């Protein structure tokens, strides 16, 4: 009798997948908690526990729907601790005649499963994960023959193709981009909406992880785990975002303020990346809410949100599959430094970094502009090797899966790809950080001071970055103005800035 085994990876918890439409006696699903996955990065403890909690909830749901499922727990005696070893063992034990899996999102796992298929005697098939708007190769096809990969063009094509906020082939309001109306600083006494958090009890899962020697970072309140671990909670978070946050999403998308860890962001990346909810339903619900209540939710807020998901999220996935595996080796600036020790502890006198890192350690989350313009900005200014930076981002965030982590980190944030994702490096001095946040006022360092006592490190490191990389950036038309400013500075001022930067770089762990 033919018997099929279907592998479900930890980021494939899509209950609407066509696999699950019917119950088939000849199919057995398999899910597994394995050390190969807990150990390929030093993950945040909330990430490991969050994945396992969501996987276990998905397993119970499939069982309740009468599917046959084998679930291998982390400390099961016969767990061989990797996808391929466990599958080989299951094939031998249960006499499976056919293996199926959904297209993995990660290059490493894709290669591993392809190799497994060529090493086993039974027939195999790979199917779509039925989650994204685009296939792995749509971006490559769209930009074929082009030298640059402009997000805006890809975004507009997808809006048209999926008829999202369109009237015929024109944008509904006649305008594609509302960025200029968005991105404001939070007013001084503005109290943001408190985030919806869950109170999941994951103490047993944590105890199992703690029995192993898996290395993790960060803290967890296992009796009150804040992240959604199933589809119902993910939908609840989506509703909360739409009711409480969407109307201010665009406005405060780039704002930062101390001790407010999510502001008007959706925190849906974990739910989406592990496929508990789909980007289509997120977009559809947001559009429905805007249609129902256009006085509360202005169009620019909605477009800002739609752009992140149909635009950036699909774009990053396309870049990943077009450019891997070379992408993971790119280091445009030949940076070689180590990440400062305080990236792992949050113990720094720089208020903006202290806040962004501590909240990352406490919640396994930071919003986009904290990742890009605080931690990423500093790491690039400090000349840290992109491998070190990738390892940090891949571990610390609950939503970190390589396809979306590496393109954002190596590409958007570090410009290590030399300009595939971005047209210029995202670096700034204190003035941008102060413009978008309330961090500087209570900082040990002084935002307006460039050299000498208590000078904000961002200021001298910023000019040092441009000076050091002039051969690579000097001709970039988007940066020309900064080089004009630099060249017009008095030589003494330049020397003082470079000496200050050199001092800070030599004493980076003391900052
Ligand atoms: P919101 O601000 O509410 O945005 C809504 C959704 O839009 C997000 O859930 C996400 O799915 C999508 N989105 C927004 N920006 C991006 C983007 N630049 N790329 C892809 N999707 C985007 N995102 C991840 O999902 N995983 C990562 O590992 C990751 N690493 C990052 C590393 C760096 C250095 C930077 C600068 C960004 C990274 N991002 C990553 C992108 C972005 O910061 C997160 O998607 C976002 O902060 C998640 O929080 P949210 O759900 O509240 O997003
Ligand atoms: C992130 C993660 C972790 C920590 N553990 C597991 C696991 O034990 N089993 C599993 O199937 N998936 C896990 N994941 C997610 C995988 O790393 C993810 O499925 C791959 O990176 C493919 O994108
Ligand atoms: Fe960050 Fe500098 Fe502002 Fe301090 S003064 S919060 S280090 S930008």
From TrEMBL:
It comes from the Bacteria. Gene3D superfamilies: 1.25.40.80, Deoxyribodipyrimidine photolyase-related, DNA Cyclobutane Dipyrimidine Photolyase, subunit A, domain 3, HUPs. This is Cryptochrome/photolyase family protein.
């Amino acid at each position: 009798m033919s018997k099929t085994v279907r592998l479900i990876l930890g980021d494939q918890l899509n209950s609407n997948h066509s696999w699950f439409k019917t119950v088939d006696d000849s199919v057995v699903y398999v899910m597994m908690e394995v050390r190969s996955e807990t150990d390929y990065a030093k993950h945040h403890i909330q990430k490991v526990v969050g994945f396992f909690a969501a996987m276990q909830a998905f397993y119970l749901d499939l069982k309740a729907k009468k599917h046959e499922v084998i679930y291998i727990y982390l400390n099961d005696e016969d767990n061989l601790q990797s996808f391929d070893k466990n599958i080989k063992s299951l094939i031998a034990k249960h006499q499976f005649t056919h293996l199926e899996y959904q297209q993995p999102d990660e290059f490493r796992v894709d290669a591993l499963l392809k190799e497994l298929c060529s090493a086993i005697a039974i027939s195999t098939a790979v199917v779509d994960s039925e989650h994204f708007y685009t296939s792995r190769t749509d971006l490559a096809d769209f930009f074929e023959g082009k030298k640059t990969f402009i997000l805006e063009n890809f975004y507009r094509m997808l809006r048209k193709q999926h008829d999202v906020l369109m009237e015929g082939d024109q944008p509904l309001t006649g305008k594609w981009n509302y960025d200029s109306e968005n991105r404001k600083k939070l007013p001084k006494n503005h109290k943001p909406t408190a985030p919806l958090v869950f109170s999941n009890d994951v103490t047993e899962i944590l105890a199992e992880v703690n029995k192993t020697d898996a290395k993790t970072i960060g803290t967890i309140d296992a009796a009150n785990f804040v992240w959604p671990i199933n589809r119902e909670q993910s939908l609840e978070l989506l509703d909360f975002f739409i009711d409480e946050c969407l109307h201010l999403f665009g406005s405060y998308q780039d704002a930062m303020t101390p001790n407010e860890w999510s502001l008007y962001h959706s925190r849906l990346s974990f739910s989406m990346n592990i496929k508990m909810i789909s980007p289509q339903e997120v977009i559809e619900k947001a559009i429905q809410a805007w249609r129902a209540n256009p006085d509360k939710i202005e169009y620019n807020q909605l477009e800002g949100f739609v752009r992140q998901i149909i635009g950036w999220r699909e774009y990053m996935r396309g870049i990943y599959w077009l450019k891997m595996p070379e992408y993971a080796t790119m280091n445009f600036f030949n940076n070689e430094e180590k990440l400062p020790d305080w990236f792992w502890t949050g113990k720094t006198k720089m208020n903006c970094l202290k806040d962004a890192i501590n909240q990352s350690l406490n919640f396994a989350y930071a919003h986009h502009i904290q990742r890009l313009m605080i931690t990423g900005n500093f790491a690039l200014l400090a000349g840290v090797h992109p491998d070190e930076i990738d390892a940090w981002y891949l571990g610390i965030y609950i939503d970190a899966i390589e396809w979306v982590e590496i393109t954002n980190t190596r590409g958007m944030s570090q410009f290590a790809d030399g300009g595939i994702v971005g047209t210029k490096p995202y670096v700034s001095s204190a003035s941008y950080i102060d413009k978008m946040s309330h961090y500087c006022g209570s900082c040990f360092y002084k935002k307006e001071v460039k050299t000498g006592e208590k000078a904000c490190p961002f200021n001298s490191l910023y000019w040092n970055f441009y000076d050091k990389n002039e051969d690579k950036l000097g001709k970039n038309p988007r940066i020309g103005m900064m080089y004009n400013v630099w060249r017009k500075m008095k030589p003494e001022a330049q020397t003082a800035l470079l000496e200050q930067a050199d001092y800070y770089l030599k004493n980076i762990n003391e900052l």
